[in-house]
Amino acid sequence: MKEDLFESSSVEETQSIGFNFAKNLKKGDVIAFYGDLGVGKTEFIRGICKFYNISSGVSSPTYTIINEYEGNNENKPVKLFHLDLYRIKEAEELIYIGYHDYVFQDEGITLIEWAENSFDELPHKHIKVIIETPLKNDKRILKIKSLNRSK
Hints:
Blueprint (H helix, E strand, L loop, with lengths): L1 E7 L2 H12 L7 E5 L6 H11 L14 E8 L2 E9 L6 H6 L2 H5 L4 E6 L12 E7 L7 E8 L4
Parallel strand pairs: 2-5, 2-6, 4-5
Antiparallel strand pairs: 1-7, 3-4, 6-7
Helix pairs in contact: 1-2
């Protein structure tokens, strides 16, 4: 397992890290985000979306649960599926929202906030992004782990 560490002191830095991270993504990738409320998961995702020329309408789908975005990079179209599992309390709910259709596909990139509520129903190959806020300051520590991902 490979782990990369980053530090961010602002929304702009978090988005920049997300933008640069997106350069290595490909269709079928699943990125699982972990971190407390307000730590920057959505800002990281906004950075990913900027890379794919998606600049408006990017918000955490806390109540809609799933947002779909259509973007492109170098004139290559790509779909991004943005899931927010914050309100998911039971594994059966994943079936009702079509979770498996988004996570086990190869037509786009799936971004999952609150992945801890996926009840371990993540694909074997996925990328984990953990965002932490140390107690002493407002800086965020971002850990990116490639789990069983073939390059």
